Amino acid sequence: MFKLKYDDFLTYDESSGTYSMSAEQRVRDETERNSWKTVGFTVLKDWRLYLMLVPMIVVYVLWRYMPMTELLGAFKDYSTFGNNGDTALMNWYGFNNFIEIFTGYNAQFFWPAFRNTFIIAFYNLLFGFPAPIILALFFNEVKSNVTRSVVQVLVYLPKFLSTVIVTSIALLLVSGKSEFGDMGALSRLFAAIAPNNEALQAALNGGLFNSAAYFRAMYVFTDLWEHAGYDSIVFFAAVIAVSPTSYEAAQMDGAGKMAQMRYVVIPSILSTVVIMLIMKIGGLLSVGYEKVYLLLSTGNESASQIVATLANSWNDGKGIAAEMTNNLIGMILVIGSNIVARKAANVSLY
Amino acid sequence: MKRKMEVSELIFKIIAYVVLIVFALMCLYPLVYVLAGAFSSSDAVLNNQIVLWPVIGTTGGYTIGLTIDAFKWAFTYNMFWISYANTLFVTFIGTIWCLVYSLLGAYALSKKRLLGRHGFNFFLVFTMWFSAGIVPTFQNYKATGEILAGLVGGSAMGDIDLKWLIVIAMGMNATNIILLRNTFEGVPQEIEEAARIDGATEMQILTKVYIPMSKATIATVALFFGISRWNGYFWAYKVTQEGGQSYSWPIQVLIRDIIENETDITGKYNADNDHLFETQGQAVSVLYSFIILSIIPILIIYPFIQKYFAKGVNMGGVKE
Predict the structure, then answer these.
(1) What is the 8-class DSSP label of residue A92?
(2) Which helix (H) or strand (E) holds A128?
(3) Sites in chain A below the pLDDT cut of 70
(4) How far apart are CA A280 and CA A273, in angstroms?
(5) Which of A19, A104, B235, B312 has the greatest count of CB atoms below 10 A from its CB?
């Protein structure tokens, strides 16, 4: 092993019996001391490149990082100034906002909202994750390019409609019976399918979205309608990337269609599936609040109120504390899933 | 020699076709329904007579037929034109603004020689992991609005044209920047070096080399930005509500306002308020025509860009 000798950096003076710094070491020290100049010089020479970063940094600092300074409001007492007061002037409140929402009076609103966030997210994962994979496998069966393209164009489309339009159409299709009008077109279909289900009939009469019992199902269904087609792009790309020779080899070995699916296609897309699953779990708690906000009504509140909409309606220190709790757990999930992805599949998502 | 099809394969194929066709029809049906509703008479709309075809007539005598009453009402309604123009403005200027800083930033981030590259990447990615939340973000927009108002001699948020706040302060998307960065990293180094030897500046390298070589991704990202601008509702609503500026409403806010205040579908209807429309049926048929009119631009752009985004998403997506 390489060993540093003292004469590399010291010179022994025999007459006085002392050590002094060698000339080489002096040069080395000088270079090291001046290295920042070299770095600084390259940065200066490259100033255009750094200037290009500035607009993006400014935008992100102003409207993504500055809001985080408002998180201090979670530790402030809003009672003195009200919701529209200046947070900077308010008294420090310690963790009282958190204690209030976890165990105090507002716990009766916070915990159900937290539970709803989890349940909606879980159902969305349970049904929303396999659907695009199944679609991708089915796309692979359609050998006619024209048919496949037409179907793909149609199923990608809902992704590009706004939440306002999706919720408006959904609300209208399952609207309830009013004093002058009949139910929405889909409600009439459901009513005809299950004429003896009294709970369903009552829910249909009052508008399907207004019933707490059917809210989650409707939410997950509309989410599936919006995203399943578009999300299948990634999986379909993985399916068509399977080399034709793999199929031929499997056929030679006497594998039928189902065996090919089992032993060729599924193993090939498995890594994509695992990555997407981990990503989905990471984003579990970021339930689309815009859609929930647009669908929220007094009738379905017990099933639909999520932490974000609850915070929006409180609009004070308690709200900030509630959302912060939710988002911190969300962040832990994202970072955790990223670590798992790195360990399991040796891919980094970011 | 053609292999004989097994029974299981045949069944699987039939299931695949059936499921895909049913799902495609399900994706299409709501649009057909809205289109039929927009061309139906308001009485037919009020009584929910529409299933697949436009229906005209009044109570008792409904027949299949067309009427353009809803569009007539829509076009004579001032707010429609104002909010449509607002949406066009926000989409065009907003998309250009987002693209400009995203392209510049993504280009700089794609350079290995950029000092503190990992730090800048983390700065960007962190916003995907953790967001401050609705209440702090709203307070931030309010503060921004007040500062901007101060610059033009006002004090409250409503003193400035809030369209500009919507344009500059909203619609950020870190995923899009990372998509662009990954694509830029894939551009061959040699071409850039050749351009540099020919005396190209940094900006020229970006505009003459990188942008032409990443057209698919840039088209995809522009589409994503544009669509999110066109569809943006929540923050535009919150900000214009706070500033009391209904003349800055985008079309989405107007659509929601009609369904919320002119019909009893969301349960927030108040019969005692003043109403724009004579009947709820009229309100809903105008709503259908608004939905159609607001989807048309997306439907026009969509086929052109559809072939790009399938490619772009796959290229920039997961890095292995």
Answers:
(1) B
(2) helix A107-128
(3) 1-8, 83-85, 179-180, 345-350
(4) 10
(5) B312
At residue A144, what is the residue type? S
Q: A53–B124: do the CB atoms touch at under 8 Å?
A: no
Instruction: Write out the residue range of the structural domain in which residue A24 sits.
Output: 1-37
Select the residue from B135, B177, B225, B300 to test the A interface by mutation, using most A Cβ atoms within 10 A.
Answer: B135
Query: Which CATH number belongs to the domain containing residue B208 in this structure?
Result: 1.10.3720.10
Binary contact (B125, A350; C-beta < 8 A): yes
**Residues of the domain holding B215:** 77-316
**Domain CATH number, residue A282:** 1.10.3720.10
Same domain, A173 and A306: yes
Q: What is the pLDDT of residue A317?
A: 87
- The continuous run of DSSP H or E covering A331 comes out as helix A317-345
Q: Confirm if B46 and A181 have CB atoms less than 8 A apart.
A: yes
H helix intervals, chain B: 7-38, 42-46, 69-76, 78-109, 117-129, 134-151, 162-169, 174-185, 189-197, 202-204, 211-213, 215-231, 234-243, 251-261, 280-316
Same domain? B132 vs B56 = no
Taking an 8 Å cut-off on Cβ atoms, the answer to whether A328 and B130 are in contact is yes
The partner residues of A13 in beta bridges, in order of sequence, read A18
CB neighbourhood size of A27 (10 A): 10
Record the pTM.
Answer: 0.87
B310 pLDDT more than 70: no
Distance from C-alpha of B245 to C-alpha of B162, rounded to nearest angstrom: 8
- For residue B314, name the pLDDT band (cuts at 50, 70, 90): low
Q: Are residues B163 and B14 in the same domain?
A: no
- Which of A148, A34, A168 has the alpha carbon at shortest distance from B283? A168
Main-chain dihedrals φ then ψ at residue A10, nearest 5 degrees: -125, 150
CA angle in degrees (0–180, nearest 5) for B281-B285-B287: 115
